[in-house]
Write a structure and sequence with these properties.
eight-stranded mixed sheet, Rossmann fold, binds cytidine-5'-triphosphate, elongated
Amino acid sequence: MARVLLGVTGGIAAYKSCELCRLFVKDGHDVVPLVTPGAERFVTAETFRALARRPPGEDVYLHLTRADLLVVAPCTANTLAKLAHGLADNVLTEAALAHRGPVLVAPAMNPRMWAHPATRANVEALLARGVALVGPDEGETAEGELGVGRMAEPEEIFRAALELLHGRSVLRGKTVLISAGGTREPLDAVRYVGNRSSGRMGVALAVEARRRGADVTLLAANLAVRPPEGVEVVETPTAADLEREALARAAEADIVVMAAAVADYRPAEAHVTKRPKDSAAWTLELEPTTDVLAALGSNRRDGQLLVGFAAETGEDGIERARAKLERKGADLFVFNDVSRPDIGFDTPDNAVTLVTASGDRPLAKAPKDEIAIAILDEVERLVG
Ligand code: CTP
């Protein structure tokens, strides 16, 4: 999921940007509409706020400097000139100066304005600065003139935007299967044996893989956080569910990331109804579950990459993580010291060491979405 600043300026094509906004939202992106006063003559800022599902009265300035992409569609001749010259007289042109990522401009204007030497020079200046252009297309303008000046279609702008966002990632178009959360093994109709995993790390990985253009399926085991939009979510509450779904889907997957805390043991017997309390002790027999990662490791197809997580405590945790890497046949293990109370289970931060056949790489403590970026950078290196 990317954060997209969607600049809308005052052209008749502004209404088409509603569809563009919808395409970004449907694909799971966080859209911040920046509607200029000129655009409000055609479409209200409220329409875009509703389409982008943004809270009323939100201060958009907070998001301006942390966006992945700025799209200006439609971009009038006037705004094009302002962008070329660095003017900052409204929220959109201010954002354009503050923004440090890729910029996509979809011009829309009268064909004579588009052909004018002043506009040509402005376009040249923007292109020289690395700004990407989509359109304008040839066709009939709103005033009935024929020529080049009509805004590109929303789908085309959307595709160009995705190219800018994902063009450089080797994960683009790859199928990625990620498990997240912690399984719960039923004791009876209401009780279970479970663990403290919230699913935050796996969800952060799903978001980042999606942002890089991968097709992501999330095997969700009792998530305490909302699964992201734009990824397929399959509920896998127990180890048996997770085993079944992971093995069924692994053949299609280029990359499998087992971030879920899968129960190693389950109650040998689960009561169908709620077991009534009595004064006697309740002795449980636990039976081992299938090690899903090890099963995937011994059946993996050519070129498939496997990532495991090792939640360990104590000094020799890293050695145990290295041993798991070999034993389970994985390419990368993410070692997590869960004895530290400030990181790991059910916390927003994490500090991990990436363990591969070629060595260990410790990462400093950081929010889980930043750790996800580092893990997927390593995955990209391994995929080559
Ligand atoms: N895992 C799995 N299936 C299981 C248990 C674990 O696929 N039944 C995966 C986890 O998703 C994780 C990795 O294996 O990616 C390591 O899990 P962990 O429980 O730390 O390892 P174990 O092999 O169970 O080792 P230990 O003896 O330390 O519990």
